[in-house]
Amino acid sequence: YDLWLRYRPVEGEWHKAYDPAVTALVVQGGGATIAAAAAELERGVKGMLGHRLPRTGSVAADGAVVIGTPATSPIVAALGLPLAGLGDEGYLIRSVTIDGRRATVIAANGEKGVLYGAFRLLKAMQLRERIDALDIADAPKLKLRVLNHWDNLDRHVERGYAGQSLWDWQKLPLHLDPRYTDYARANASIGINGVVLTNVNANAEILKPIWLEKVKALAGAFRPYGIRVYLTARFSAPIEIGGLKTADPLDPAVAAWWKAKADEIYRVIPDFGGFLVKANSEGQPGPNDYHRTHADGANMLADALAPHGGIVMWRAFVYAAENPEDRAKQAYTEFQPLDGRFRDNVMVQVKNGAIDFQPREPFHPLFGAMPRTPMMMEFQITKEYLGFATHLVYLGTMWEEALAADTFRPARGTTVADVLETAVDAAAPTGMAGVANIGSDRNWSGSQFDQANWYAYGRLAWNPQGGAEAIAREWIRMTWSGDPATVDAIAGMMMGSHEAVVDYMTPLGLAHLMATGHHYGPGPWVSDLARPEWNPAYYHKADAAGIGFDRSRTGSNAVAQYAPELADRFGSVKKVPEEFLLWFHHLPWDFRVRSSGRTLWDELVVRYDRGVAAVAAMQARWAALESRVDRRRWEEVRDFLAIQREEAQWWRDASIAYFQSVSKRPLPEGHAAPP
Ligand code: GCW
């Protein structure tokens, strides 16, 4: 339940070092956010050092922690600290001397920065960093760091594997579950500053007054932690709850309805963040229904929000059954020509890959291709296609791979992370969204290790250049143990876990092979669904001759949506990275795989085996940690790994059996036959 904010007692030398360095708290004024920072410091110090942190009005002895902004605290102001480059949300932590006494100052331009700095100081102690000569300056690289909850008003969470929605609508607004505060603390500790409360597929109900009162209560619980609330806006809301005949974005009555709705929302929630919209995707209504563009739709909503400073996050996850174009191409085809046509307060929110949160996809070609449009990354933290909550899959490495990908736009060396960080103009928003894996489960995320994905998401939203391994290690030390051998063992498990799931589900660039609807377990044989692009067969195209989706020039030419250098690399069988081989090419079963010299068929089987073996290796590693971590969590992980092992075998055996029925090839030597 405590997540990475466990604050367990610090022993021995470290206790001796920290204890005299944190003796009192100096808070001079400030609002609810500084109060939250102070409360967190008190809680953390009590937990880790075992003593209370008395509040004093001045630095009266060694060891004071002074927190504030130059505006709230005369002591902070008098220090004349270099805060200029830190923006609204950055912070500076320094060991200083005030009136001849040693002190630590947490200073920022805004209260949120103070809160983030407080969490950072506590983290230093959690990680056993020295705190006697501190000089840490940090600021987020993206402005909007948002969780997208796919939560419905009946508390069912779409693709959620951690129980019900946290939002207990029935008891709101009069009862605020204390979990809302712990949720906000956890988010603030990793810098998340926005949450979309509702599912992108939700109906328009949430926009009615009775629900807005409940949203207001949640907003109030989150506000001290620097978190704004956003809502999904169903495009047809003017018809469904407004009594209009149309939702045409160019109809003045529709625009007026949204404007009035926005005014109403801001009367209730003055710092409301804005709307997230899924339009003309998977059956959702949108501007295309009226032969208008996505820009027409987004701009109409943006104009309603603009007077209040709100933002529209407009998703580019679009594809249509009627469209015969390669699904991987459709979003680019539809959005790229609209570059420069969106209002300043619209962000186009793009999934990391062009299909849909698959275990591995090349980065979405829209990144770098719309330089005049603020573009937001959408990652999926919940593991819809990665084994739900029971499979141990650390997503930090997968996200790092996407963020570090070179877009070659405008030139070599511009990564996806660079694209996200580069605001189209000084005032323009930048951001990242993560589809939350949080629910009412006691462990929040459905499993112990899925907490790491929430954590890693926040850290990467703060700094998209961050390294997945460093993030994993700090999470482990805060969550499991500081013992170096234990940290190494767990980090080893996490760092190899994504490659393992790719191997046992979708090796060599295969994608979308999961069973229909629930997406749990394999279903590569499915080919009779009414919507062609929902059939796994659409993606693997396996037949007697070979396997893979030809997206090169001889095929759908999706490669042409990338910069020329990448089109060339991805489009060539010789140059394409092996992990994307079958994403971009349809190849004969006897094709020789470069790295191993094996035939494609043999290589496929080897990879499936390798994935299962990697899970077995994780089990062995975990077994060896039995005495190193607490029993309850150790047992849960042990059991979940056993489930994962069974299911990895299921994936392997079912996939190989199916592909063998098509390839008619013998199993390579050394393949472990199914038990
Ligand atoms: O991944 C697919 C999911 C849908 C989801 C959709 C989307 C919210 O299967 O459940 O709907 O993507 O991202 O809109």
UniProtKB/TrEMBL annotation:
Molecular-function annotations in GO: hydrolase activity
Keyword Cytoplasm listed: no
Keyword Isomerase in record: no
Catalyses which reaction(s): Hydrolysis of (1->2)-alpha-D-(4-O-methyl)glucuronosyl links in the main chain of hardwood xylans
Residue ranges of domain Alpha glucuronidase N-terminal in the record: 3-121
Alphabetical list of InterPro entries matching this protein: A-glucoronidase_C_sf, GH, Glyco_hydro_67_aGlcAse, Glyco_hydro_67_aGlcAse_N, Glyco_hydro_67_C, Glyco_hydro_67_cat, Hex-like_dom2
Keywords: Carbohydrate metabolism, Glycosidase, Hydrolase, Polysaccharide degradation, Signal, Xylan degradation
Chain ranges of the Glycosyl hydrolase family 67 catalytic domain: 125-444
Listed EC numbers: 3.2.1.131
EC supergroup of this enzyme: hydrolase
Domain of life: Bacteria
Domain Glycosyl hydrolase family 67 C-terminal as annotated: residue spans: 446-670
Summary of subunit composition and partner proteins: Homodimer.
Listed PANTHER family: ALPHA-GLUCURONIDASE A
Protein name, entry field: Xylan alpha-1,2-glucuronidase
Organism: Sphingomonas canadensis
